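Hello, quick one for you while I still have it in my head. A protein chain has come my way and I'm curious about its shape. Can you walk me through what the tokens say about the fold? No rush at all, and the record is pasted right below.
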Amino acid sequence: MKKFPRGLPLSTLTASTCLLAALLTTGCGPSAETPPPTKAGAVKIGFLVKQPDEPWFQLEWKFAEKAAQAMPFSLVKIGATDGEKALTAIDNLAAGGAQGLVICTPDTKLGPAIVAKAKAAKLKLISVDDRFVGADGQPMTGVHYLGISARKIGESVGQTLASEMKRRGWTAADTALCAITFDELATAKERTDGASTVLTAAGLPKERIFRAPMRTADIPGAFDAANNLLTQQPNVKHWLVCGSNDNAVLGAVRALEGRGVAVENAVAIGINGTDCIVELEKTKATSFYGSMLLSAKEHGYKTSEMLYRWIKDGVEPPLETRTIGTLITRENFRQVLKEQGVRD
């Protein structure tokens, strides 16, 4: 892994150095520049995400902003798509007088470096979505974390697929699972493993469970992975599809369509619920049946609130907080999204 230079101690940063750091971080996303100093007694929090253009992270920011208005505190939104930008952003936050940071890191292996920078700058730290990984390859359980119960959500996907398989009268002999995988990310692996385990328990033979690894964690990467699998398994009549998120499953759905697989011969369940809205809104249904909607409100609002209380009142949050998902389909997604505050 590329090693990034460590930032200078806060005491050595001159005004001109701060200005230079701000100029060097252009392109990191909204408010990535050095924030103005915090007024005495005021709370300033940074909220850094790895993919600022993705709907999920935009929703996290939306709910973080609501928390900032309610508490209140000053919120600095930062989009950092690589490790160097993330580490530089931490320096800039510290220079601007921030007292805390919520972060979904662009690289979980940067955990030790992020923790070291935050500690040196006396920033309270909460990781969200993707858990830090230490030098030993294990999760950094000593860092405050809010994330989904990945295994349980994956199991919910598997249960829904099993129910649909039974409802449609499909047999194990002519049905198979296409699991779009990205095992490099622990939470992604937990999701697809959970779905596969439940389907095996429901009677789908292990030899009918096919893993299609993505080279890149996006729709094109999922499309290529599924396309390769479909080439290798041309005789499967009915396909069940799962993946680590909506985009992984959408890529597989597009591959199935390209192969001429009829909508009624495939059922796909995503995870996130925010990247599939356009798919569910289509006039003509596709094989994308639904998604496990995750709570962007919990991930954006609750992390910000916990960090604020920790800074202002000294109330330290639990080291680990987990959230679960809610199934949305073409029939209920509008109502559920409204109830969750995703849509007005």
Q: What stands out?
A: The domain at 10-147+296-324 is CATH 3.40.50.2300 (Rossmann fold). The chain has eleven helices and twelve strands. The radius of gyration is 22 Å.
